[in-house]
Structure prediction request, 207 residues.
Amino acid sequence: MNVVLLGPPGAGKGTLASRLVEEFGFVHISTGDILREEVAKGSELGRLAKGYMERGELVPDEVILGMVRERVGDSKDCFLFDGFPRTISQAEGLREIVPIHLVLYLKIPEEEVVRRLSARRVCRKCGANYNLITNPPKVPGVCDKCGGELYQRPDDREEVIRKRFRVYLEQSAPLIDYYRKQGILREIDASRSPDEVFSQAAEAIRG
Ligand code: AMP
Prediction:
């Protein structure tokens, strides 16, 4: 079974993805994580993507589809796509790569997204996520898991968050109807706690 996590930035896709990977053994494909790794490496792809990411805009579809095609290859694993597809054209491209069986739509209001993302901090070393309000690290600025330094993503500043939300509404929200018409969309209330979001998602996957 291949699953897509759909929803605005800050809906909790990353947090839910790691729980679903643990529970069901999916191979996790987060296009945002892959792009951030490429930026950190300073690769050609990273240099191309950096400007779009810092402005809160989408990286071109062909670049993203090429990246996903390469990761999936001819593997028979079950994939969990996180932050992808983000446009109808990416969804059309994905159909040619693997079939999608379930789309979990994480629904959440804009103000909650801004509140969550401005408080988000990420570990530079292991990528673990914290939230200064709901899930703070034990020692400020230090990762509980690996002792790495915590930082604020450059695109988690309020004006960029609002831009990312607008981009989501314009370019990604049409995917909700696209997948609803295919009869594979399940709506999840993402303003609930991480445990509640996980149990709604797990129930949808178990069918
Ligand atoms: P994320 O971590 O999913 O919020 O992604 C961070 C940034 O990476 C986005 O704001 C985009 O600039 C870029 N990005 C990630 N995934 C995609 C995608 N599927 N299509 C286009 N751009 C993407």
About this structure: Residues 9, 31-32, 35, 52-53, 56-59, 64, 83-84, 86, 90, 155, 164 surround adenosine monophosphate (CB under 6 Å). Strands lie at 3-6, 27-30, 79-82, 102-107, 120-123, 129-131, 150-151, 185-189. The longest strand covers residues 102-107.
